[in-house]
Design a protein that fits this description.
mainly alpha, globular
């Protein structure tokens, strides 16, 4: 795995956190998400960024860490970017509530796994 992949994963975690912060700050639910274009746009921008970042992961990384459907993440980004007006907001809300937290945890675990040896080397 290249250092670039770790940088990308950290950015995915950052945007995942921003989605969660937006939901908490504005006490969002599906109805508010569907009817408040500002909130929907803010969250969709983070989804777009996550998809773009997933596309920047190396093929080696995506093969090694294939538990997450990287192609699907990229496809959601493309759908949101190119067919935003017809994007299913209920599907996006489900992604925000279930898939994004799972992706965040997965990325955090990989970051921890890969950075742990570096920390141990620095302490010796």
């Amino acid at each position: 795995m290249k250092d670039r992949d770790i940088v990308v994963l950290k950015k995915i975690v950052k945007y995942s956190n921003e989605i969660n912060e937006t939901i908490v700050r504005f006490d969002l639910d599906l109805d508010k998400f569907q009817n408040d274009h500002v909130m929907k746009n803010a969250i969709c921008m983070c989804i777009l960024q996550i998809g773009e970042l997933a596309n920047n992961l190396t093929d080696e990384f995506k093969t090694e860490y294939s538990k997450i459907p990287w192609r699907n993440i990229i496809a959601v980004r493309n759908r949101a970017a190119h067919a935003y007006e017809t994007t299913d907001t209920e599907m996006l809300w489900k992604i925000v509530l279930t898939d994004i937290p799972e992706l965040k945890t997965y990325c955090e675990n990989i970051i921890e796994e890969k950075e742990k040896p570096k920390e141990q080397e620095n302490n010796t």
